């Protein structure tokens, strides 16, 4: 294949602006979809993705296109994951391209996610050009949105293609722009193999499939390849392209995009961003930009029905096959029994995994409040990473604790600025910038501690702005912070499962809130029950559940026997779910008040 006729590109868009619909249009127009395959949104394979309208696993397809200049082109459309937790994966997919289509909904305008990804594309030296989608909508304002693209992003939008992916308007113009505006790849097919691994997943029948973009060299079936980060070697058993279904090809060479199946057992060994080379004739320098991704947010997952424990374990193992950025290990909790502590890239990643467990594997789960990774500097000089209060070393051994910060960009209509600033301040945020992008749209940039964001930031932001704000974030750094361990005590006894790590300034309010919530949920017992929140030995909040003989039947004034029976049943039912702390019986709800995500 002639390298001058290849175009590698991605579609960059905010969620719901029409990326998948447009991709389908391009596939259809170039004849890549047969009638049978013409189900809507070929690129979003999983049902869950389709329902949520987001792309979880990137899919890449080769399109053949004969342009107005009469030449035949090969267009590789590289689909990127579409949400904030996968920034690194997006950046690697973009690194496999020379160009990007910036799709903006002409009835909405530029959003935070759009900006973040456009900047990623520009950082990767991509040629980016705008497409205004959904011009069929009566609310479309192409002139305003063009202006916004120029003002906010600084891209020339005067000749932006006006398209409707839904109605198939503008498809050919877009293909022509791809051919004309995006440069062909450069690379030396005779040099040693150097390829970027930009996606990988596990296939039940074929094992791990990796997607690669060849920078230099050629790759064919039978070659002995090596993954640079692990130095492991494999034989390329199959080499091919998605067109749009898998098709083997004799070889891939510099500039091309395709898949390799090489008997890799575990997706964790096929790391995104890694360099693929020939084992016997390796390239001299691997590609830059490689990073090992680590979970940033943790939570406990417990089956509501304890008999589902084994099922949960199997389901987690299955999900892990396809997602090496997610981790899990067994954990037991006094209140919740046997479960797993799971690590995620971020909150949305967490939500997706939970939802898949519940939906695809039919599990009912309790999810504990998410936590983050803290760095504890001990007096003896070492640093340990922990993500729950119970892993904290004794106070007298701690020098100081650091917590992760993120840089959050919030994009909002201007009427919500006040509410958002109040929220960010409450969440211990440090203001960086407030940018008025247009007379009505504002970009608010804050440095925020991740542990405040994982709590309820998204939900609060959504309700403050009625869903009109969008949020994007990146990890910044670790910062020293006044973090303390807060214990909950029941009649003087610390309940380990309820301890948490919290900022000193927040402890008082949170402590008061939690003990009063628990007071509501703990039934009166034969004796008085004291519920306390404490930092070290210092009690910061206290509530008391008064002693009372609980005679529920007294309320029934004789008479109605079925009502009496119901109450007795209910009481028995409640007993089953009680946990003992010392001699106090606590209902599961009291634990959940602290542990569960609301
Ligand atoms: P993605 O999240 O960027 O992949 O967006 P989708 O392609 O899933 O589209 C989001 C929604 O917008 C879907 O309901 C589409 O049917 C709709 N949509 C996409 N393109 C157009 C368009 O050109 N016009 C109209 N009216 N709706 C569109
Ligand atoms: Mg989509």
TrEMBL record:
<dbReference type="GO" id="GO:0043022">
    <property type="term" value="F:ribosome binding"/>
</dbReference>
<dbReference type="InterPro" id="IPR013842">
    <property type="entry name" value="LepA_CTD"/>
</dbReference>
<dbReference type="InterPro" id="IPR035647">
    <property type="entry name" value="EFG_III/V"/>
</dbReference>
<keyword id="KW-0342">GTP-binding</keyword>
<dbReference type="InterPro" id="IPR005225">
    <property type="entry name" value="Small_GTP-bd"/>
</dbReference>
<dbReference type="InterPro" id="IPR004161">
    <property type="entry name" value="EFTu-like_2"/>
</dbReference>
<dbReference type="Pfam" id="PF03144">
    <property type="entry name" value="GTP_EFTU_D2"/>
</dbReference>
<keyword id="KW-0472">Membrane</keyword>
<dbReference type="GO" id="GO:0005886">
    <property type="term" value="C:plasma membrane"/>
</dbReference>
<comment type="similarity">
    <text>Belongs to the GTP-binding elongation factor family. LepA subfamily.</text>
</comment>
<keyword id="KW-0378">Hydrolase</keyword>
<dbReference type="InterPro" id="IPR000640">
    <property type="entry name" value="EFG_V-like"/>
</dbReference>
<dbReference type="GO" id="GO:0003746">
    <property type="term" value="F:translation elongation factor activity"/>
</dbReference>
<protein>
    <recommendedName>
        <fullName>Elongation factor 4</fullName>
        <ecNumber>3.6.5.n1</ecNumber>
    </recommendedName>
</protein>
<dbReference type="InterPro" id="IPR000795">
    <property type="entry name" value="T_Tr_GTP-bd_dom"/>
</dbReference>
<keyword id="KW-0547">Nucleotide-binding</keyword>
<dbReference type="GO" id="GO:0045727">
    <property type="term" value="P:positive regulation of translation"/>
</dbReference>
<dbReference type="Pfam" id="PF06421">
    <property type="entry name" value="LepA_C"/>
</dbReference>
<dbReference type="GO" id="GO:0003924">
    <property type="term" value="F:GTPase activity"/>
</dbReference>
<dbReference type="InterPro" id="IPR027417">
    <property type="entry name" value="P-loop_NTPase"/>
</dbReference>
<feature type="binding site">
    <location>
        <begin position="16"/>
        <end position="21"/>
    </location>
    <ligand>
        <name>GTP</name>
    </ligand>
</feature>
<dbReference type="GO" id="GO:0005525">
    <property type="term" value="F:GTP binding"/>
</dbReference>
<keyword id="KW-0648">Protein biosynthesis</keyword>
<dbReference type="InterPro" id="IPR035654">
    <property type="entry name" value="LepA_IV"/>
</dbReference>
<dbReference type="Pfam" id="PF00679">
    <property type="entry name" value="EFG_C"/>
</dbReference>
<keyword id="KW-0251">Elongation factor</keyword>
<dbReference type="Pfam" id="PF00009">
    <property type="entry name" value="GTP_EFTU"/>
</dbReference>
<feature type="domain" description="Tr-type G">
    <location>
        <begin position="4"/>
        <end position="186"/>
    </location>
</feature>
<keyword id="KW-1003">Cell membrane</keyword>
<comment type="function">
    <text>Required for accurate and efficient protein synthesis under certain stress conditions. May act as a fidelity factor of the translation reaction, by catalyzing a one-codon backward translocation of tRNAs on improperly translocated ribosomes. Back-translocation proceeds from a post-translocation (POST) complex to a pre-translocation (PRE) complex, thus giving elongation factor G a second chance to translocate the tRNAs correctly. Binds to ribosomes in a GTP-dependent manner.</text>
</comment>
<feature type="binding site">
    <location>
        <begin position="133"/>
        <end position="136"/>
    </location>
    <ligand>
        <name>GTP</name>
    </ligand>
</feature>
<dbReference type="InterPro" id="IPR006297">
    <property type="entry name" value="EF-4"/>
</dbReference>
<dbReference type="InterPro" id="IPR031157">
    <property type="entry name" value="G_TR_CS"/>
</dbReference>
<dbReference type="InterPro" id="IPR038363">
    <property type="entry name" value="LepA_C_sf"/>
</dbReference>
<comment type="similarity">
    <text>Belongs to the TRAFAC class translation factor GTPase superfamily. Classic translation factor GTPase family. LepA subfamily.</text>
</comment>
């Amino acid at each position: 294949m002639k390298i001058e006729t290849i175009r590698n590109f991605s579609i960059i868009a905010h969620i719901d602006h029409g990326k998948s619909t447009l991709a389908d249009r391009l596939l259809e127009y170039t004849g890549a979809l047969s009638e049978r395959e013409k189900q809507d949104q070929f690129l979003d394979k999983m049902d869950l993705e389709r329902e949520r309208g987001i792309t979880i696993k990137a899919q890449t397809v080769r399109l053949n296109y004969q342009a107005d200049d009469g030449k035949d082109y090969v267009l590789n459309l590289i689909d990127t994951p579409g949400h904030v937790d996968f920034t690194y994966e997006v950046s690697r997919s973009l690194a496999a391209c020379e160009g990007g289509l910036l799709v903006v909904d002409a009835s909405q305008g530029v959003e935070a996610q759009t900006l973040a990804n456009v900047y990623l594309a520009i950082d990767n030296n991509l040629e980016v050009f705008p497409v205004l989608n959904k011009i069929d909508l009566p609310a479309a304002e192409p002139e305003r949105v063009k202006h916004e693209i120029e003002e906010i992003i600084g891209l020339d939008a005067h000749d932006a293609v006006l398209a409707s992916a839904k109605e198939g308007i503008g498809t050919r113009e877009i293909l022509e722009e791809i051919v004309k505006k995006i440069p062909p790849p450069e690379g030396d097919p005779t040099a040693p193999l150097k390829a970027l691994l930009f996606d990988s997943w596990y296939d039940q029948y074929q094992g791990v499939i990796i997607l690669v973009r060849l920078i230099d060299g050629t790759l064919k079936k039978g070659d002995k390849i090596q993954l640079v980060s692990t130095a492991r070697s494999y034989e390329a058993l199959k080499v091919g392209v998605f067109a749009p279904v898998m098709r083997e090809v004799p070889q891939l060479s510099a500039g091309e995009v395709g898949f390799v199946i090489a008997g890799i057992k575990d997706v964790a060994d096929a790391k995104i961003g890694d360099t693929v080379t020939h084992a016997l004739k390796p390239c001299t320098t691997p590609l830059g930009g490689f990073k090992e991704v680590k979970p940033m947010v943790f939570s406990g997952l417990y089956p509501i029905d304890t008999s589902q424990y084994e099922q949960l374990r199997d389901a987690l193992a299955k999900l892990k096959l396809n997602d090496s950025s997610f981790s899990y290990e067994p954990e037991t909790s006094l209140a919740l029994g046997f479960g797993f502590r799971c690590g995620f890239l971020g909150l949305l990643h967490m939500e997706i995994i939970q939802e898949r467990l519940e939906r695809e594997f039919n599990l009912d789960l309790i999810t504990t409040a998410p936590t983050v990774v803290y760095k504890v500097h001990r007096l003896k000089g070492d640093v340990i990473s922990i993500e729950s209060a119970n892993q904290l070393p004794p106070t007298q051994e701690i020098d100081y604790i650091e917590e992760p910060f993120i840089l959050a960009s919030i994009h909002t209509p201007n009427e919500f600025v006040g509410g958002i600033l109040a929220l960010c301040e409450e969440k211990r945020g440090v203001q960086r910038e407030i940018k008025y992008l247009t007379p009505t749209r504002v970009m608010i940039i804050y440095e925020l501690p991740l542990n405040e964001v994982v709590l309820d930031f998204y939900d609060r932001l959504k309700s403050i702005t009625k869903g009109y704000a969008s949020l994007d974030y990146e990890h910044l750094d670790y910062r020293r912070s006044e973090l303390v361990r807060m214990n909950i005590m029941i009649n003087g006894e610390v309940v380990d499962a309820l301890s948490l790590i919290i900022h000193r300034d927040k402890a008082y309010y949170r402590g008061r809130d939690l003990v009063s919530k628990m007071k509501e949920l703990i039934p009166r017992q034969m004796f008085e029950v004291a519920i306390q929140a404490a930092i070290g030995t210092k009690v910061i909040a206290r509530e008391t559940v008064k002693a009372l003989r609980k005679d529920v039947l007294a309320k029934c004034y004789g008479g109605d026997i079925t009502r009496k029976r119901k109450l007795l049943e209910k009481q028995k039912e409640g007993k089953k779910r009680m946990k003992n702390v010392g001699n106090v019986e606590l209902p599961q709800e009291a634990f959940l008040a602290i542990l569960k995500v609301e």
